Amino acid sequence: MLASDTYLRQDRIYFNLIMVFVLAVAAVALLYAPSIGSLTLFVLVAAMIFNMILTYNLGLQRGLIAAIVLTFIYGSYIIYEIMIHRIAEVNFAYIVWLFIYPLSSLLSGQLTLTVSTYKRELENKRSLEKLVTLDAATGFYNNQGFFRKLDEEFLRAKRYKTYFSILLIKISNFDELQIIYGEIDSVKILQAVATKITAQTRISDIKSLIEENMLSIVLTETNEEGAKVVIEKLHQALDTIATEIKGVKKVIRIKPSIGIASIRESDTDVLEIYDRAKGELKYDRG
Q1: Can you tell me the distance from the alpha carbon of 282 to that of 169, in angstroms, rounded to the nearest whole number?
Q2: Which of the 8 DSSP states describes residue 203?
Q3: β-strand 240-245 against 248-253: which pairing, if any?
Q4: Which Gene Ontology molecular-function terms are recorded (predicted)?
Q5: Contact status, residue 250 vs residue 242, Cβ threshold 8 Å
Q6: Which of 109, 172, 257, 258 is the most exposed place for a label (fewest CB within 10 A)?
Q7: Do residues 95 and 78 lie in contact, with contact meaning Cβ atoms separated by under 8 Å?
Q8: Which of these, 186, 193, 175, 191, lies nearest to 240 by C-alpha position?
Q9: Domains and their CATH numbers in the chain
């Protein structure tokens, strides 16, 4: 189920609720102040609201068909009143209501078209942002996406007094792997590493490929002690990886170095945390 479908359903629900609320207000007004209208007027308003809900939910074409039916029924009612009750002159309001139903359909149709257009533009913008900030090979955020998400997490942690940790994972022998297996197959190795990282972390953790041989994980709601547990799991998982190279399954030894840094109360900039994690890389040899 697409997010856009959910969004559209929510939008329809809000519109329907507003229309039902308007109808309820009209019913209460008629009940407690009958002098402001009649039962006939309430029925006309209810039919108009029904037509607007129908148009908004099912589209302008069906809404206009319903408006034509309602207009025909109402027109027949006016003719009936003239012929049976011998009304000498037709009230101007009677004529107005003949145009209200198609106009209300057009209004609802235009509204749903505007909302749909806005929704599509929003989805296109989000898709473009994903293309710009995601790495095609691993599905992780790229360098730009990493720093954007890191900045968001930093601001959130400062605002709500929470914490997070950064792990930087450098594949120390990646240059050697590129020489041995070539650039194309080294990407497969990188994908296998990304798969292992995904298996050892949570969905909420922010995973990125920030350099050709360096990945990053932002561990949300995780202090330094919790991050060290993740590091141990990653060292065990990334010691060797299995992937298919030129149609042959190979077990490849890699050498990951992992740097760690957690947010501190004294930190004023997200780069302070990133630099600490980068500085820790030289102390971890896998």
Answers
A1: 11
A2: T
A3: antiparallel
A4: diguanylate cyclase activity
A5: yes
A6: 172
A7: no
A8: 193
A9: 3-131 (no CATH), 134-283 (3.30.70.270)
What's the token pair of residue 213? 């041989």
Largest CA distance in the chain: 100
What is the C-alpha R_g of the chain? 32
195 CB burial (10 A radius; 0-12, 13-18, 19+):
middle
- C-alpha span between 20 and 50 (Å, rounded): 9
In angstroms, rounded to a whole number, what is the distance separating the alpha carbons of residues 101 and 155?
51
Q: pLDDT tens track of the chain, all 286 residues?
A: 444 444 456 788 888 899 899 888 888 887 777 666 677 778 888 888 898 888 888 888 888 888 888 888 888 877 777 777 665 555 666 778 788 888 888 888 888 888 877 777 777 666 655 556 788 888 899 988 899 899 999 999 999 999 999 999 999 889 898 888 888 888 899 999 999 999 999 999 999 999 889 999 999 999 999 999 999 999 989 988 888 888 888 888 888 899 999 999 999 988 999 999 998 887 665 5
- How far, in Å, CA of 167 to CA of 122, rounded? 32
Q: Which residue type, as a one-letter code, is found at position 24?
A: A
- The structure tokens listed for 264 are 């501190």
